[in-house]
Each structure stands twice: as structure tokens, then as C-alpha cells.
């Protein structure tokens, strides 16, 4: 499957014209939702346009196959100035030396005369033992395959866009937690400095607090970097400049409710449907190949006229005699051709096609196995993610209490700065883990929906 070849036929300026259109999309004031991101990716991502152009090309292939039922009409009009020397003897078929009709005159002269010809030939194949119908079936199967490829591409891009959306949400939550960590580090540094200036705490506590603040800022910078990367990744799917992207994520910050997961129906998955379409296309091509070793019948009729300035006694009429086609003929007949020695090559091609069908059938089983494995992995990830998400709030509450107690002990002179900064790091990490745990549940639900080949249940669950 060569999508790139079909898409490259589009004028380059048409491709460029899509970019401003994508960037000009209206961004909702409340930010885009994950459903809007998915729908935008399905409309605008270039791979979708590639698949759509392939469908158009396949539809044109069907029309081309149907034209084989039409009669063939060939016509010619010709005028020439040539010598008329003719000799006995055989000349093997070739395309270099023009033929000469008429008697052998035994001359070898460079004198030339005018000649003309006009004619039309109609050829029609009344029956073909099913070959043309098989070619149409093969072309139709190719179109069905490209339509299945479009649906599979839409699913892949939808999953990728949704995953990029969740990745950006996770990055934003990490930035939020990291910023809270920086704020806490700054607060404790100010407190330590005040006590150090009052000779209540050693200067080493200030240095340790400054180091912790620098580490917290580094963590924040890394989180912001990851956020920018995630924003750029989402931008390629929705066609909005990264700096203009705002998200509506209220629902995604909550743990989704328990829901019944429908059984996996592999036959409805677009990847499996596409593979079956490939197998059907290969079978249709094999059928057309098997029907190609048949006689070819043609009903033909021809009407033509010729003119010449040469006579059979060797004399010339001179002037412009011969430019008018004044001698006419017609013919009606039936032709039969049969490629006797094509059987070996056709049989070899049939064997290759049968091997291709077996390979595609094996690949279909492989896809079914992979889809089943993905569903099992997604179910396991979903179960684990829910349990983790149920536990992280406990860790956040405990870390918050520990941080408060460490601060109180330090202010009372009973604790050390090490206890305070350790509790701060623990609280920041707990907050990050809590946010990511909730998003991990949504990501696992996305994986479950992707294995089923239908994101609609997942998108419905993300609605506010």
C-alpha cells in the first residue's frame, strides 16, 4: 500500500493552502475538549486526505475496468509522398520499414507519387468468459480495501490525537504540582532566612533551603519542557499553533466511574476489517488471473479508402493525383486469438498470488492475536490504574500532614531542615502521582476503546 504515491500527485500549492486553513480554526473560549481534538484530527490530518485520494483513485479504477465492455473504434487519415518500388520476399514483423501494397514492378527509381488513406475500424468483444467481470470485481475489491484503510487510518489518528491530549493534560498537572513545590520551597527559604538572621538557625539551613529551591525550580523547568513538547505534539493533530492551545479538562481530572467493558469483537475492528478487505482483493485478483487464459473473440468491421498517383503499369499520374482517397473498401469479420504459450507464465503468477493470499490470511490471524493481547493488556492496565488512583489520595493526605508537622517541629526548634525539605519533596511527588494516576485510568480506558476499534464510548465518558 503506497499512500504517498497517490497523495504526491496533488499539486503542491494545494497542500500548502491547507496550512493557513488549519491554523485559522476558531479556538473555543473555554478551551478544546478531547472530543474536539479527535474530530479535528480526523478532518485535518494529512494521512486522512491521502486515504481519501486513494478511494477516488480506486473508484476511477472501477470505471476504467468497466470501459472494457465498450467497443473499440480506431480511425486514421494519412497523406504521403513516397516512391513505389516493391520487391518480392518476406519481412518479419517490425515497426521500422513501412509496407508497400501493389505488384512488383522491377523498378528502382527515386520518382515519387502522392498517396492517401482514410478509414475506421470498430472492434467489439461479445463475450470474454467472465474476464471483464472479474476485473471489475477486483477493482471494486480494491476500492473496498481503500475505504477500510481510511477507517483504520481515522482510528489510528484519533487514538494518537487522544493520547497526545492526555499527555498534555498530564504535563500540565505535573507543572502545577511542580510550581506548588517551588512555592513551598520559597516559603520555607524565607522563614529560614528570617530565623538565621535572628541567630535562631545556622547559616547551613539557609544553604540547604536554597539548594532545595534550585532543585524544585529545575523540576519545574523540566515539567514545563515536557509540557511544551506535548503541546507541540498535539498541535500537529489539531492544526492549531502550540502557543494558542488551551484545553478543557475538568472531567479528565476526576476518576472515571466504573463501567461495563463490552466483550472484544475482533471482526468489527477497523484493522481486522482492512486485513479482510486485503484478502478479498487478492482473491478477486486471483480470479481475474485465472480467467485470463481464454480465447479472445473480436467482432470487427472496417471501412476505408485509399488513393495513389501510381498505376500498375509503372507510370505516374503526376500532379496532386493520389491525394484524394477515391478507391474504397469495407470488411466485416470475426477474429479469434489464443495465447497458447502464456499458460506457464499465468500459472506462475497464480502460484505467487495464492502464496500472497496465504500470507495475508496468516497476517489476519496475527492481527487477531495482537488485538486480543492489546485488550488483555488494556484491561490489566485499567484494573491496576484504578487501584493506584484509589490509593494516591491517601498518600497525598499523609504527605501533606507530614509536611505540616515537619514545618511545625522546625518552627518550634524540635526538627531539622532536612525533615522539612524531605517532607516537601514527598508532598510534591505525591501530588504529581495523584494527578497522573487519575489520567492513567483515562489512558487505560483509551487503550480499551482502541483495541475495540471504537472511541465513541471513551469520548462519551469524557463529556462534562
Quickly list its features.
464 residues; alpha+beta; four-stranded antiparallel beta sheet; 10 helices; 4 strands; disordered N terminus
Q: In which order are the strands of the major sheet placed?
A: 1-2-3-4
What are the segments in which pLDDT stays under 50 over at least 5 consecutive residues? 1-25
Number of strands: 4
Oligomerization status of the protein chains: single chain
Helix content: 55-70%
Distance between the termini: 40 Å
Shape: elongated
CA-based gyration radius: 39 Å
| Number of helical stretches of at least 4 residues | 10
Q: Overall mean pLDDT score?
A: 85
Strand residues, percent: 5-15%
Largest sheet, strands/sense/barrel: 4 strands, antiparallel
N to C succession of SSEs: HHHHEEHHHEEHHH
Structural class label:
alpha+beta
Would you write up a description of this structure?
The two termini are 40 Å apart. The longest helix has 69 residues. The chain is elongated. It is of the alpha+beta class and 464 residues long. It contains 10 helices and 4 strands; from the N terminus they run ααααββαααββααα. It has a 4-stranded antiparallel β-sheet with strand order 1-2-3-4, with no helix packed on it. Helix 3 packs across helix 5. The N terminus is likely disordered. Helices cover 61% and strands 11% of the residues.
